[in-house]
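Re: your question from the hallway

Yes, I did run it. Sequences:
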Amino acid sequence: MTESTPPATSTTSPASPVTSTTSPADLSVSVNGERRSVAAGTTLDALVAGLTSAHSGVAAAVNEAVVPRGRWAATALAGGDRVEVLTAVQGG
Amino acid sequence: MSDDLFTLGSTTFSSRLIMGTGGAPGLEVLERALIASGTELTTVAMRRLDPTVQGSVLSVLDRLGIRVLPNTAGCFTAGEAVLTARLAREALGTDWVKLEVVADERTLLPDPVELLDAAETLVDDGFTVLPYTNDDPVLARKLQDVGCAAVMPLGSPIGSGLGIRNPHNFQLITEQARVPVILDAGAGTASDAALAMELGCAAVMLASAVTRAQEPELMAAAMRHAVDGGRLAYRAGRIPRRYFAEASSPVDGRAVLDPERPAF
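Structure:
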């Protein structure tokens, strides 16, 4: 996903100490609020698979937009993307 | 009560007790309480996936055949709530949402402006919207008018156990409602649930009263009976309140006795 607006944080700034230690092909993204480095071309599908093996009960948003599960494999992450991966927990 | 079904949206339930899952000390305790409650509809919250967490509330609900109702707890703006509802729809395959948009963490009272805004957006987006609202008859009517499938006024703040603080408002809400009115939040014990039903609520939603009780399974059973009892009382029609006594034994036919000569 590409961003239409600059990220609110400095996590994707070229001067960021985190991105400076990664290879040029790596991207810095935020996953559930935590900065992490992923290889360029990483898809949302692969990212979520690294968090859970569950095939249902999970949803993802990239930059505050829901990405339907059917599009995860075709959704390549871009530097600065903010990914939220949610599931159901006890509540209410 | 199989002859008195509860219809919400296009779905019919025989239980009028909607349970929450928050506050339970563990999934095993929760499961026993859910069974004892007889509930057929139960809420969950949407949170960031934690790979270290073992067990899932979803598998419990799935095993028990209970329909899952995602909420938007923790949202403070219409935008957050709408996105959370859409994520829940994607994750859980349901277009039902218990809509919560609260104003602050201290009271957890609904923000009426954000709530109405989110409700309208989600109804337009095809959701069956069940909004947690203030015990305000005007707001309840407006939520109904934008197409909510029910209104869920709070009896008192979430988790407070203070019962229904304004029964008169509940009566005003239930009298004008064309959609089910569901007590949401505040029930502390069985009499609170019974009172809600006696005031004309179609159902009761609660969590803490059961999950944080000393014996959750027992309290769940108590709530189930209270909801059924209150519903029966509502349907039966209570007697009017009177200032003075009205004898229940007949006046005519009494023996004529000399009050000056008692038998003892």
